[in-house]
TrEMBL record:
Protein name: Uncharacterized protein
Originating organism: Paramuricea clavata
């Protein structure tokens, strides 16, 4: 409960959100923390995510070239604030419990492909 409360209060207020604005969620924090904690915990326990939390907004970003060619766009997905909270809660848990393999470099803060290559070269020799 405290962890979810802290995550909500540390949310950056942005305009590009799905569903409720983050400002409203911060204002309602004291009232929604316990129900959200229960929802997130049950979701993780049962392996079921409510459909409403799976909705994201996809925005096509121009990669350059002819704007009429669909292959010149890449999709960017904007997550809902609730999905961001679940992600941050899981990330915090995984880091705190040292669950990730030490050679997991992708999708980790402070880890890069350059470090992965250096580590591979070190292990090779």
């Amino acid at each position: 409960s405290n962890e979810i409360h802290d995550l909500i209060m540390n949310l950056k207020v942005t305009k590009s959100v799905i569903g409720l604005p983050q400002k409203i969620i911060k204002l309602a924090c004291d009232y929604i923390t316990e129900p959200l904690t229960e929802l997130f915990n049950q979701s993780l326990l049962r392996g079921v995510v409510p459909e409403i939390l799976k909705i994201s907004k996809i925005t096509p970003i121009d990669k350059g070239g002819e704007t009429i060619d669909p292959t010149n766009y890449r999709p960017i997905s904007t997550l809902s604030v609730f999905e961001k909270l679940v992600y941050k809660q899981l990330l915090s848990y995984v880091e705190k419990e040292h669950i990730l393999f030490e050679f997991q470099f992708g999708f980790r803060k402070g880890h890069s492909t350059t470090q992965a290559i250096s580590k591979q070269k070190l292990l090779k020799h």
